[in-house]
Predict the structure.
Amino acid sequence: MADVIFRRIHPLPPDRFLSLSSFLAIPLFAGTFLGFLFQNHPMSQSLWWLAPAAFLPLWFDDSASFSRSFGKGFLFGLAMNVAGLFWLVSTMTHYGHVPVALAVFGDFLLSAYMALFIGLFWSGTVFFRGKIPSFLLPPAAAALWTVLEGFRGILFTGFPWNPLGSLLFGHPPFLGMAALVGTTGMSFLLVLSGGILGEILRKVRGRGLRRTSLPWFAALGVLFSFWAFAGYHALSSVREKGPPVRIALIQGNIPQDQKWTGSFVKSSVDRYLDLSREAVSKGAKLLFWPETALPVVWTSPPPALLSTVKQAESLPVPLITGTLGVVRTDDDEGYAFTNEAVAFSGTGDSVQSYRKRHLVPFGEYIPLPWLFGWLRPITGITGDMRSGKKGALFVLRADGQAIRVAPFICYEALYPSLVHQMALRDPDFLVVLSDDAWFGRSDAPYQLFRQSLLRAVENGIPLIRVANTGLSGVMEPDGTVLAKTSLFTRQEVTIPLHQKRRETFYRLHGEWVFRLSLLFILCLLAGVPFCGASGKSPERTDP
């Protein structure tokens, strides 16, 4: 009787229905859990160590077809990114004035694009099972994830948001491994851990806790022991260079709907000037304002704001601030704006500037205008900004010292290679100027904060981050966070900052884990026809 009722409700046979439910539910649940770990929630921050467990469904996936395994990976990635990027909906509706339905569609579309890479990861790992010895499968999966995560940060100008390795922010000693392998390498290690754990569970499920699973237990123990030891050593061996300099982070907390309104521009800049004078009275020798804190073209401000801009230039100590620039173009407009950082010397005799190189798609320009041009009225981008071509190294005299500062603007700090490129020029400080007001009180400011500050551990150089509405703070090379501010507070933070540094392996060799992972995958693909492992029984080649 129950079977008859079940068939009336569900036209599929019970076994087919349960199979379909399992196909949909397991990857969706696992992906949602992994996406939850990227959110700013006390529980997600305490459960970071369970990230490798999210990959366990892969190790129990015996799909025979590419389409089925790709579908499972796509669902996993879709759930992961929808959960991790759900802040996009509120950002687009409240600040971009995009209709809710279109905002939800935009979040889904971006998540679906990012899920394509995870679909390839999942299907690629299933492809390798049975074609290579089983002891190579976890590193093959980790290398595949690393390569695809890297390409996601490159293709179509890249979108490197929420790399898996960023989950280790704030979790020493494992965080210290970034000094050796970078955030990319920490992604590799998390997937490798999940793969080894998956192999252990496959052995236990198949034959119980027997001798065949012992090598995998040993491998997992060795991996975590080495990871913890190397990370601890990296975080504890940082040396100081010279006496400290007193710096001040100026967080103006200017509402986004006022910042670009002509009647409020003067009062906004005046707020930064007042906070700066307060910091100088506390002994600050170097000031940092956030992205576009001077919301005018600094070389030719409106006459009504000329004296205000001059006051910023004539502060008694050096100032690094975000502002706007302008360049000539060959299109009908004849000019375009640029997003810039400028350094005023504090003596009025020199100005240095840097033009943002990596612009935010759909925020500062419309990519592929022939395809997405229809979005201009919705996003409010009437003309594309122009990007810079090269980095800059500001050299300033502060407290009797020559301070070398490498500036980055907001989104640029998410690109490890971009920051590494400037770290090779041996700056004393890395500085990130940002304006996160667009994100409100969502998860985005926290995700940006932790991803940006990881660059300090990777390169062994202190990183200063200052944002209009927060989060601002300083990351030491040993993983210590100093002077972290709260969201939507008006404040200045003055602290002494040592020129601490460490010659990290990552700074010397850059994205070496990505390069080796790519080479490893190519070698595996070339060697698959010659592997002796059976395609039907992945259990035959135990380590």
In short: Residues 4-10, 533-543 have pLDDT under 50 and may be disordered.
